[in-house]
Amino acid sequence: MAHGPAKGFTRWLYTTNHKDIGSMYLWFSFAMFLLGGVFALVIRAELFEPGLQIVEPELFNQMTTMHGLVMVFGAVMPAFVGLANWMIPMMIGAPDMALPRMNNWSFWILPFAFAMMTSTLFMEGGAPNFGWTFYAPLSTTYAPPSVTFFIFAVHIMGASSIMGAINIIATIMNMRAPGMTYMKMPLFVWTWFITAYLLIAVMPVLAGVVTMMLFDIHFGTSFFDAAGGGDPVLFQHVFWFFGHPEVYIMILPAFGIVSAIIPTFARKPLFGYSSMVYATASIAFLSFVVWAHHMFTVGMPLAGELAFMYMTMLIAVPTGVKVFNWVTTMFKGSMTFETPMLFSIAFVILFTIGGFSGLMLAIAPADFQYHDTYFVVAHFHYVLVPGAIFSITAGVYYWLPKWCGNMYNETMGKTHFWTAFIGLNLTFFPMHFAGLSGMPRRIPDYNMMFADWNMISSVGAFLFGAAQILFLFNVIATIRGGKKATDEVWENPEGLEWTVASPAPYHTFSKPPQVS
Amino acid sequence: MSSNQDNTVEHEEYYVPEQSKLPIFASIGLFLTVWGAANWLNGDANGPMYFFAGSLMFAFVLWNWFSIVISENIQGLNSPQLKKSYVIGMAWFIFSEVMFFAAFFGALFYVRSLAGPWLAGEGEQGLGNDLIWPGYEHEWPVMTTPDMAANGDSATMRGPEQNMSNPGLANWLGWLPFWNTAILLTSSVTCHIAHGALKKDNRRQFNIWLGLTVLLGIAFIILQIEEYVHAYNEMGLTLESGIYGATFFLLTGFHGAHVTLGTFMLLVMFLRSVLKGHFKSDDHFGFESASWYWHFVDVVWVGLFLYVYVFG
Ligand code: HEM
Ligand SMILES: [Cu+2]
What we know:
The complex is a heterodimer of chains A (516) and B (312). Chain A is mainly α and 516 residues long.
């Protein structure tokens, strides 16, 4: 166990080290973030002006689909798993993840899955073009042949997620250092613990729904075909039973990250630790019973509409508890505004905006107006970009000095933040207005009346894209050199990860520390 | 080991293997398998080749993986804490399998109790009946599909000629699903007895009862194949028989696949015990996890028997 990393390229292929695997997840995620970003910029370039100018509608549909799939499954989820790999063992005083070889396997499935998924772009009939939600019958009866590859890609990336989640659960349940009771675990560990349960509960359901598609397409079953007694709406129910918990999979670990960062830079302990834990658990629990808020306009019975509407609104309560706790943590703190803190504060404010637009959408009768418009696009980008993406970025800046032993360039970090912040608000805020005035989502051309909003959105999108190049540059520069970081890195941060050297040794906690 | 061992005071070194070639080759094997399957389904002539090459590679890697894990345990590398990780891993893996079946059971309940009646014109959701599928009446099993009701002989989505549902209690003795249920329930009991024998270090009893379990598993699979052949050849019940055929074959089919895997796992445990003398009365998680899997498969069957056959 005293050994350092192996030499050469095979280190990465054969590694069982949680830090190596965490790094691979993070780099993979960033590559997918750029790829998904390119798809997004194709979309925004086409939408810069009304009329069709850059891409054919057929390719446009492939771009919206691939953008969503790559960002959700390739960028956001692997980034959180990467952070979990790096941080959970260090945070609970464990020598590594519980099942190190399976850990490597979970990672290495992903490049293959995404190679398979992106290869569909070059196939006859083109890539999947039915939206990231792949509603039947668009994704069955009317799908391009490449849908089969999409289905299998989903299968194997689902296997990867399930194994990753099982590993995280085993690590947290079994590898905590003596004295690290559940209610002493850092919130990042808690939120990931709960996220892992969401994953093993819903990824198999996703596997089930793509399997039904596969059989409808190739073996003549009629799950989603009313002619044979099935129902296309069945697809939506099964999909969203997975899909809604999935959006919480993409946000709960984010809650954990900002709950680590805000106390450090407010120099006050987190307000309401246990209420944070209970709120996270309630959100996770409720996320199983709200799925049909994505289907208000599909023609459900009134009782269904009402039940799903009230349950959805109920989720806003524990979410509100969290926002309250973060704000209260900052209240009267001696705050400083280093890059991770800037991203975290922006998270709190902008995520809340996304939560409010979510509440608007949750009102069933109002959703008849908003559904399938750019208002929905604005909503979920506010929860995902300044939500998931900003928290990941904040986490990277916060822990990078621990990972590589060097401080990042603060000026460049702040520039990254402000460019990203302005870029994203320019991109997504106008979408609220375009949507409220009726602009439908997933279209390559639009009415003249939406022209101004769209032009602003497109400019913002390119600005946001440019900001990420700065991020990449800053991270690489930090890995290669820079001011040496102290072991604590920040002023009195809380957590076991700050008790080990910077950079963190290849193997930490071969002997578990005693937690008081 | 027994799963409820207390190891809060244990802190031997946790065994972290330095490096391993297994995962990357498992990934390549898995990828080739699905890549081949997708090409095959899409009519590419090379598909089967990739598929079989991949499956073979995947099986080979898994075989090695399990062998290595077993030999690590025999060498004494596994601390009680590490063993507990395997226990947790297996338990939550089974939970994920439960959720996979839940998707198909959910689909069954939904079409049967909600979508079907709506298609037949019930309630405010039923408007489509007159307009799209006039004449469709909902019954379960769906023998007459909406397509048949609306389009008669020109319908392409047709229901089955006969179904597998409950023939009435009086006829159960001649009803194959009943015997399958009896077999599977018995096999859970024999498996449990085998476990008890192992804990008492009674190797002979263990081998006998475990062997019996494997035989019952094989009997179940044979009867299930028999049922499918009968369905296809004599009952006009196929995957393409509307929603009834779809739910019937996917639920029983995935269950059958799991029984096959479970039987294989138990068979491996049997051979390990008979040929290699593996397992100790207090250290036999390999067997224990296979037996958990077996009980899980059994519970799923009870659900199937009730909702697909008895109340079918
Ligand atoms: C207060 C909390 C929230 C509420 C009340 C809420 C409510 C809703 C509703 C009602 C819709 C459906 C709108 C429609 O299609 O007409 C929706 C869409 C969506 N929400 Fe939320 N939401 C909340 C938080 C979140 C979070 C935290 C995320 C992710 C991190 C998220 C991601 C999404 C996504 C991705 C969609 C669109 C899916 C699609 O159709 O492509 N939401 N939300
Ligand atoms: Cu939702």
